[in-house]
Amino acid sequence: MAEEKQLRITQVRSTIGRTQGQRDTVRSLGLKRIRHTVVQPDRPEIRGMLNKVPHLVTFEEADAAAPEPTAAKKTAKKAAKKAGTKQAAKKSAKKTAAKKTAKKTAKKAAKKSAKKATS
């Protein structure tokens, strides 16, 4: 049997201020937010939904060999996690928090000494 064609659909505009039918159509396509992309089969029902909201979405035929963008992101995250990038990020976050605490402490000390000087 031949491979079924796929459509890559991306929401490009908000559904705020649109009719309830348009909101429901975008949601039925599986889209949740702007720049969210889904892959759907190229069927008449899907094409009809796309024709109902062409001002809110873009679509193109998806290559079977090319992975879905979200899958590529997940793969990149896994690779970064293996490389220890996440641990480095945690360390820098801790350093940043320590710097903020030190700044607050220094400000409090400066305020106290300023109060004493004025008294």
List keywords for this structure.
Ribosomal Protein L30, Chain: A, alpha+beta, 4 helices, 119 residues, 2 domains, elongated, 3-stranded antiparallel beta sheet, 56% helix, single chain
Structure, explained:
With 119 residues, this protein is an alpha+beta fold. It folds into 2 domains: 6-69, Ribosomal protein L30/L7 (Ribosomal Protein L30, Chain: A, 2-Layer Sandwich), CATH 3.30.1390; 84-118. 56% of the residues lie in helices and 14% in strands. It contains 4 helices and 3 strands, in the order βαβαβαα. The protein has helices at residues 20-28, 44-52, 69-83, 85-118, and strands at 6-11, 37-41, 57-62. A 3-stranded antiparallel β-sheet has the order 2-1-3, with no helix packed on it. It is elongated. The termini are far apart.
Short recap of the structure:
The chain has helices at residues 20-28, 44-52, 69-83, 85-118; strands at 6-11, 37-41, 57-62.
